[in-house]
Specification:
The chain is mainly α. Helices cover about 65% and strands about 0% of the residues. The chain contains nine helices and no strands. Helix 1 crosses helix 4, helix 7 (about 125-145) packs across helix 8 and helix 8 (about 155-175) packs antiparallel against helix 9. The longest helix has about 30 residues, at about 1-35. The protein is elongated.
Length: about 210
């Protein structure tokens, strides 16, 4: 019985490892070709398995796409936070931008998908729509915790949150196009200073990503 259980656990671990390698390969191929130009056959070849082997884990291209997006949000601690979670400090978002600058492949794949998702009937459109709303809500909570109901500019947290999203996403595109000319972390910290914040750790009790 114990041997059977160990064998089952080993198979499950191999399956999880295979899924993780497929997701990583999918991100790489999407970064190179975009979602429209990505095929399951190309991802399977990148992993070194047959397309039938890939379909055992992800039965459709759309299922693989959603898995890659979910994995990106798990890796990216700036993803949507659970409702009621304690807001992050602004300096933690600045640290996230620095972290993203160290993983251009992931950022490239995500940005390619975000750009494509604005087209009608794209399978990731609903995902990105929900994600954007959640990120705006999370950023508004962060701004409210930092500044109260009005920022030094007079804007409310709800008015400012979409601007922060636009800066983060827009900087990623500029940085991907010309990383030598655009210092993404420095540019984000400069924008935070425009909000009336020095970008350093404050006295807010949140300790960061959990």
């Amino acid at each position: 019985m114990r041997r059977t259980a160990r064998q089952g656990a080993a198979r499950a671990a191999r399956g999880e490892d295979r899924r993780a390698r497929i997701v990583q390969a999918a991100l790489e191929v999407i970064a190179e070709r975009g979602y429209r130009g990505t095929s399951l056959a190309a991802v399977a070849e990148r992993v070194g398995i047959t397309q039938q082997g890939l379909l055992h884990h992800f039965p459709t291209k759309e299922a693989l796409l959603i898995a890659t997006l979910e994995a990106r949000d798990e890796w990216d601690t700036g993803g949507p936070r659970a409702r009621g979670a304690q807001p992050w400090r602004l300096d933690l978002y600045a640290s996230l931008v620095e972290y993203n600058a160290m993983r251009p492949g992931i950022v490239q794949a995500f940005s390619a998908l975000l750009g494509e998702s604005v087209t009608a009937r794209h399978p990731a459109r609903d995902y990105f729509t929900r994600r954007a709303a959640a990120v705006r809500e999370s950023l508004a909570a962060t701004l409210r915790a930092e500044f109260g109901e009005r920022l030094p500019s007079g804007l409310t947290p709800q008015e400012t949150a979409p601007l922060l999203v636009a800066v983060m996403d827009g900087l990623q595109y500029q940085w991907l196009l010309d990383p030598e000319a655009v210092d993404m972390p420095a540019a984000f910290r400069a924008f935070v200073r425009l909000l009336g914040h020095d970008g350093t750790t404050g006295d807010h009790p949140a300790d960061g990503p959990t």
